[in-house]
């Protein structure tokens, strides 16, 4: 009776037989065979198949909706019986990058694991835009504007970004009075070469260039402190150096107001209890 149901739901969630097979760590032919046998038993076609993609039929969509409800109720019943509501267990994979994840998110995750020692956590520091579903991550910490509609994004913390340089660098090369003047300066690039500014209440992007690039803010900070160029960094990172005078801010009147750190996770109907619990813990830790 239950044979093929899990494979079917994985195909629905991951959008293809190949991705479902990867998630379940089985062969694509196994997934295809199980779904085909399920369709044969039901006497109904669940997927429309073409050479390029698959899509649910009306019958498949209705069947998937009912199965998800049943599966969630089954998971809840198992959790309650096994005591997971009191003792969540299992692996949670998180991806993120930068000083914010290392210095602020990681300690809060550690508090969670200390409270629930049967939970395992794997934090991958990766600056690229990881595909959470395909690569098997439960959560991501991202910065800036969220554009992927397939993800749920919850704000963790607003971060004020500022442009800084050493007094010595500015004495040698001049202090820019407008974003456009940055094209004449050595800019220390973290991720992208387009920096965003608020100009006359509109967001303007300026393409910058420089001879130093790193995806770690501390590397950018150290380069700025050696008079190498202009950096765009979070205010909490540069605050001690602003206070001591080793760095100064520029272009403050052009700051944009939509910089935030986000907790991001896939739009799934079935989120493991341990992951839901960590989501609630992080949101409460930052906004509570």
What would your notes on this structure say?
The protein has helices at 5-14, 17-24, 28-42, 58-82, 99-115, 132-135, 167-173, 217-225, 235-244, 273-287; strands at 47-49, 54-56, 90-96, 119-125, 139-143, 151-158, 161-165, 187-189, 194-199, 202-207, 212-213, 230-234, 248-250, 260-266. With 288 residues, it is α/β, with parallel strands linked by helices. The protein has three domains: 5-82, Arc Repressor Mutant, subunit A (Orthogonal Bundle), CATH 1.10.10.10; 90-157 and 260-287, D-Maltodextrin-Binding Protein, domain 2 (3-Layer(aba) Sandwich); 161-254, 3-Layer(aba) Sandwich (D-Maltodextrin-Binding Protein, domain 2). The strands form four sheets. Strands 4-3-5-14-6 form a five-stranded mixed sheet, covered by helices on one side.
Give a quick rundown of the structure.
The chain has helices spanning 5-14, 17-24, 28-42, 58-82, 99-115, 132-135, 167-173, 217-225, 235-244, 273-287, and strands at 47-49, 54-56, 90-96, 119-125, 139-143, 151-158, 161-165, 187-189, 194-199, 202-207, 212-213, 230-234, 248-250, 260-266. It is α/β, with parallel strands linked by helices and 288 residues long.
């Amino acid at each position: 009776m239950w044979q093929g149901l899990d494979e079917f739901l994985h195909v629905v969630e991951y959008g293809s037989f190949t991705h479902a097979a990867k998630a379940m760590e089985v062969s694509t032919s196994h997934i295809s065979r199980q779904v085909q046998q399920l369709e044969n038993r039901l006497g109904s076609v669940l997927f429309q198949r073409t050479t390029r993609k698959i899509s649910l039929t009306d019958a498949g969509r209705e069947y998937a909706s009912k199965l998800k409800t049943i599966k969630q109720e089954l998971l809840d019943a198992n959790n309650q019986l096994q005591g997971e509501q009191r003792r969540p267990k299992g692996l949670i994979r998180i991806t993120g990058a930068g000083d914010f994840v290392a210095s602020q998110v990681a300690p809060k995750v550690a508090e969670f694991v200390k409270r629930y020692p049967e939970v395992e956590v794997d934090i991958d520091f990766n600056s690229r835009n990881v595909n959470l579903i395909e690569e098997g991550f439960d959560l991501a910490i991202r910065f800036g504007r969220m554009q992927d509609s397939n993800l749920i994004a919850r704000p963790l913390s607003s971060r004020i970004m500022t442009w800084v340089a050493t007094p010595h660098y500015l004495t040698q090369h001049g202090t820019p009075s407008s974003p456009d003047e940055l094209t004449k300066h050595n800019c220390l690039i973290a991720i992208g070469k387009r920096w965003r500014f608020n100009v006359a209440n509109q967001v303007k992007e300026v393409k910058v260039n420089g001879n130093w690039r790193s995806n770690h803010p501390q590397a950018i900070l150290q380069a700025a402190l050696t008079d190498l160029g202009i950096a765009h960094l979070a205010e909490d990172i540069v605050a001690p150096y602003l206070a001591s005078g080793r760095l100064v801010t520029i272009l403050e009147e052009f700051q944009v107001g939509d910089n935030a750190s986000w907790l991001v996770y896939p739009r799934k109907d079935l989120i493991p209890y341990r992951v839901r619990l960590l989501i609630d813990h992080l949101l409460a830790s930052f906004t509570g």
